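Hi D.,

Good news: the full-assembly prediction came through. Inputs first.
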Amino acid sequence: MKMLKLILVAPLCFAASVVSGVTFGCKQACLELSNFDVSRSTGNTALSSLWSNFQAEVEPECRLVPRHNRDVAEILRVIRKFNCHFAVLGGGTSPFKGASNADAGITIDMQSLRDLDVVDGENAHVVVGAGNLWAHVYAALAPFNMSATGTRNSLTGVIGSILGGGILFFSEAHGWACDTVIEFELVLANSSVILANEHQNPEIFWALRGGGNNFGIVTRVSIEAFKNPPTWYTFQRFSPDHMDLVFNRLEAHTNSMPNDVCQIAVTFQWHVPTDQFVVSERMVAYELPELPEILWRKDSQGKLEPVSVLQTVSYQRSILAMAEKMDQMNPHGFFNLFGSLTVYNDSDLFTMLARVFMAEIEHIKTIEGLQVYIVYNPLTSKALSHMQKRGGNALGLESRDGPLTIININLHWSKQNDNDQMYVFMRNLIKGLRSTAVQKGLLHPYLFQNHAFEEENLFDGYGVVNVGRLRTLQKILDPDRVFQALQPGGFKLWADQVDDAQWDKSEL
Ligand SMILES: *[C@@H]1O[C@H](CO)[C@@H](O)[C@H](O)[C@H]1NC(C)=O
Ligand SMILES: *[C@@H]1O[C@H](CO)[C@@H](O)[C@H](O)[C@H]1NC(C)=O
Ligand SMILES: *[C@@H]1O[C@H](CO)[C@@H](O)[C@H](O)[C@H]1NC(C)=O
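Then the structure:
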């Protein structure tokens, strides 16, 4: 594979230069497209409303609601003609400013592309239009006692989560959302509508499974469906004094997940209402799993001492009910930041990372409307093995990388005045977590796109070979850089290092 040398001649920030230069173009483009459903409303542009204030406070020049993939192609044609920047709105739950709502540009609101066809039988699958949220997919599959691999929140858009990866309660058995895709329909930069599957445009099919919004506008996907009876969800709370015992369990489960357990995760939270740290373990299983009433700690003489569990709750629910419950934990109307890193499975490291988190929290405890927690998500060797399905995905992870743990940081607050401080907090927290993992030699370079901090060089973590392959494809499909320059929201393949000298079309 031929790799480009990334020599930085002159830094060039596309997003900024484009935004200031094309406002006039966007007015013209909106005028030319005025036969579409056009709305100038701010904030309330999504199906419910945009989740994060960072997105909700953005005002597009116009919002367009395509009713067919042909409409998307036509909008893209006009966008190119007038060089107007844009964003594609699905669920709108990315906290990134501009990811799904274009500041003074065109927001393409997919909400009318709502087809949803369930195909039952041996190769059960569901065909999903790009305007659907996972809530719609789960609800459509429920009468068949089936589900599909989406996300743990119901209000997330289907396409955005698939393009980034997508983790669900059932990823151990079925893989990540991107690994369950059978086919994409998408509109390319030149407005051609194509299909990508294992046999037709397989390179595009590979790239879309993890490559983000760098290749086209996806208008429809087919994804696998599976039998999914009501499931047990358990919650156990422990004192943070005993987090090492909880993390020992997590390490053991990550290395060898009990057969009947679908998923396990540990949350470490600064609980604002009670002014304390809380550590909790969640399990998902079809049969009610055995839950310990006590854990055992060895004292200095090697004698076992009992440690009690503070709280145990278990309930049987449908996936939709559970995802809606998760939504309540992440309400809209706040400023949000995400962060993520990936580490090898090691309980001492998990404890050290929790201590870094505890120390950093000291700086922000008094912030108004604060909610902050980290979630340790095992990525077992079995879950990783699904990543080879249908030619594999673009994420650059293999079974032999595992088992891994993806640590996601969730942060929200109320006041715009605190934004700068919260960015500083997030940068310091990620830096502290990362350097701790590096010291132990247990940092993995992969970053989970759906939850990564917006300042990361995300694609570096996919590995040199995969980034080269993604960039080569990007140049072939989109030589004029429509999805790099005109769609600034989200992780871009050429984020930092683009300059015109390097953009040599003769490479193609
Ligand atoms: C779904 O499951 C319920 C309860 O187990 C059962 O009564 C119903 O017949 C099932 N429906 C289908 C379509 O399999
Ligand atoms: C955690 O994973 C590593 C491989 O990365 C493995 O060597 C180790 O044994 C695992 N820990 C446990 C407790 O099994
Ligand atoms: C659009 O781009 C694709 C991918 O580069 C190419 O195969 C196709 O021929 C182009 N279509 C038109 C109408 O130019």
